[in-house]
Amino acid sequence: MPKVLFYFHNAVHLPVLLPIFHELHADGGFEIAYTFPAYNRELQAGFQEDEESELRKLPVKQVKRPQDWNADITFAGDVIGSLLHGCGIVVNVGHGLLSKGIYYSNNRHINRENLCDLLCVPGPYQKERMLRSGKLFVPIHVTGYPKLDAIFSNRYPPQSEVKKLLRQDPAQKILLYAPTFNPELSSIPILWTRIRHLAKPGRTLIIKLHSATMPEYKRAFQMLAQQQDNILYVDKPDITPYLQASDVMLSDVSSAYMEFAALDKPVVLFYNPNLFEYAHYDRNDPEFAWRDIGIQTQTLEEVDSAIERSLVHPSEFSEQRSKYTEQLLSKRDGNSSSRVIEAAIDHFASRRRIVPVQKPEVTILLDVRGARIDRIKNRTSQLIDETGIKYELWFLANPEQRQQIESIISSLDIVSGSITLAELRKLPQNKFLAVLNIGTEGADRWLFRLLNHVRANDQVGAAFPLAFSASPVQDPITRLGVDQRVSWSQLDKSVRLAQAGNHLRLLSMPRTDCLISGKEFLPEVIEVLQHRESKFSSAFLKQSVLALDVVVKLPGVEISQLQHKDHLDDDELQNAEMRVRELADWIGVITGGGNGNGSSSSHRPNGVYSEEDRDQANGKQSIESHLRLAQHYLKRNNFELARKHINRAQKTDPDNRAVLDLENTLNKLRKQEQQSS
User: pLDDT by residue (tens digit) across 12-45?
Assistant: First the structure.
């Protein structure tokens, strides 16, 4: 009986995952458990005490940590694949219909999707946008939207009945206010509590806020509902009952308005003039490009008029609603949960089937020279489980090992062979070459992730993992400031949480213990392998990168000296994430750009950089990087680190206006803290 785990990262995922859970549980052919992290407001993870009640009702076992269940399949929502390595097939089923320029766009966030095994999206639009990025290499299935299954299958009570359940007169018109939480995009900072004027006689105003909305806003709207009888404030995670009950919705760029429009109901959209300040603003995204799905407004008076118009003429924008719904949510038969389950089971079954690879894209060259035969057997078995890519395996062996290696090859169901150092030029040349020392070990498809850096960008000639002993950045334990007792798998998880898919240009001569190269440089890699004293050419180094999301153990690293802990707690994980972000900005400064595309600036021997080196490398980028980091730490009330980065920025330009403004902000916050204490 397959073991299935449901991972609920926060309350937002309940309405998406629960329909899948109930369908799978009713099947009876699976052993099911669920888990969720401890509540952490900063990371927007976990459940508060009043939110846990919905989970406690589930008639299955709760496990403390995802890895404790040893699942075959894990269902999860959002980009948290980095937390679920070792949990079987990870199926990502939730970003909503819109993503505000984050998930369904070609940016650094999209790389994280590769950390799951299967991605289920609501409609063809999301799949097309993701494939267009050229950065995704996991299967994408269009399954529909489980969250709305009950409504589309008519298993949900009709509108009049839902109104009664909400203790509303069926004759009463219901306005649903469902804004997003981002201050640059949300209608909340502009409409604020004036929203009460929309609750007129004959109308009920239901306020349903995003779970990430600022607590100050939540309290204000709660008080509003206490003061006025026809205002209802709801804080349940599932918006579905209110979608069904309402006659018109007021929103801004929340994906909730697309869910409402999918029911062919009218939406009124509010325009926040600050939206251009939003970091991920893209005028081509649906939330900005498809505004003709309803009436656009900019003032409270326009909102009031638009609501009245929508109530009188509810079918006015029906054609546009149908047009966009078809792209975002093409399958509306109430069977989305079944399709998600079917895709997951099929993917799990295909992993268990032994299917010889017809056209491998990668030649893996495993250097086993001088290794014992038992160690070679064990490592080969581990490698097959780790890859997640189509490959053929070749052993780089000494001549006297060839006969023993042949016995291993005969037991493998993949294209395989052995070769000596002198014969390397006869190595089959697939699109990519992966060179691994037998001592190279990683976690959770690390070879797949390393390969993504090369195949997602034709400007990258080769990718190397973060964990090297060469400086400046290939000493992750020291550079990231992570506790020395942390294990490599824990470090791997911490790094990927912040930097999935991001890389930087190399600044020093790499080792050949672990790399993946594009076809262009295969001859050069072979040349270096055959002549260990040879060095890679400057052209190779210029096109090679350090993959920040791949941490491996390499030969020569005294890993046995590290004391392993069971897991990172939330504070350690958060600190690791912040240090990775700082590391990326720091390297961006000394290489001439945040994405590592610049040339390497002068540095000290052995890659040891002083703080003066960093700040002098590139004045403008130095200031911008330190400002970003100062703002990052200010949000977390870490005034000491914020002051450090403000001081560094001032060294470069003491009169910079942005630096002075940030210093004033820091002083105010510190003063407030002193007064409150």
Answer: 889 999 999 999 999 989 999 999 988 776 667 7
The model's pLDDT over 249-271, given as tens digits with 9 standing for 90+, comes to: 999 999 899 999 999 999 999 99
- The per-residue DSSP string of 136-193 comes to --S-EEE---GGGHHHHTT-SPPHHHHHHHTT--TTSEEEEE---S-TTT-SHHHHGG
Q: Are 654 and 648 contacting, i.e. CB atoms less than 8 angstroms apart? A: no
CA pair distance 294, 271, nearest whole angstrom: 12
DSSP at 511: P
Who has greater pLDDT, 561 or 151?
A: 151
Tell me if 140 sits within 8 A of 119, measured CB to CB.
Answer: yes
* Residue 607 confidence (pLDDT) above 60: no
Chain centroid to CA 53: how far?
Answer: 27
Provide the β-strand partners of residue 206: 176, 232
User: 536-562 in b/e burial notation, b at 16+ Cβ within 10 A?
Assistant: beeebbebbbbbbbbbbbbeebeeeeb
Element (H, E) at 256: helix 256-261
How do 503-505 and 544-547 pair as beta strands?
A: antiparallel
> Sign of torsion, CA 450 453 456 462?
negative
- What gap in Å lies between CA 554 and CA 469, rounded to an integer? 9
Q: So what's the pLDDT on residue 199? A: 94
Per residue in 486-510, pLDDT (tens digit) is: 777 777 777 777 677 788 877 677 7
The DSSP output letter for 215 is H
3-state class (DSSP) for residue 89: strand
Give the closest residue to 435 by CA, choosing from 534, 354, 527, 359: 527
Euclidean distance between CA atoms 521 and 72, whole angstroms: 38
Pairing state of beta strands 514-518 and 432-437?
Answer: antiparallel
* Half-sphere exposure in the Cβ direction for 467 (13 Å, CA): 27
Helix (H) / strand (E) containing 61: strand 61-62
Segment 205-230 shows an average pLDDT of 92
> Is the model's pLDDT at 351 over the cut of 90?
no
CA 283 – CA 287 distance, rounded (Å) = 8
**3-state class of 221 per DSSP?**
helix
Contact 138, 117 (CB under 8 A): yes
The model's pLDDT over 277-328, given as tens digits with 9 standing for 90+, comes to 887 888 888 888 899 999 999 999 999 999 999 999 999 999 999 999 999 9
- CA–CA separation, 419 and 155 (whole Å): 63
Q: How far is CA 117 from the centre of its chain?
A: 13
Angle CA 411–413–416, to nearest 5: 80
Per the CB < 8 A criterion, the answer to whether 457 and 516 are in contact is: no
3-state secondary structure (DSSP) of residue 27: helix
pLDDT (tens digit per residue) in 413-433: 777 889 999 998 888 888 899
Helices (H) and strands (E) in the chain, counts: 25, 21
Q: Model's pTM, two decimal places?
A: 0.73
Q: Which domains does the chain have, with CATH numbers?
A: 3-150+335-351 (3.40.50.2000), 155-328 (3.40.50.2000), 362-567 (3.90.550.10), 618-676 (no CATH)
CB 114 within 8 A of CB 138: yes
Segment 564-578, tens digit of pLDDT? 344 455 666 666 666
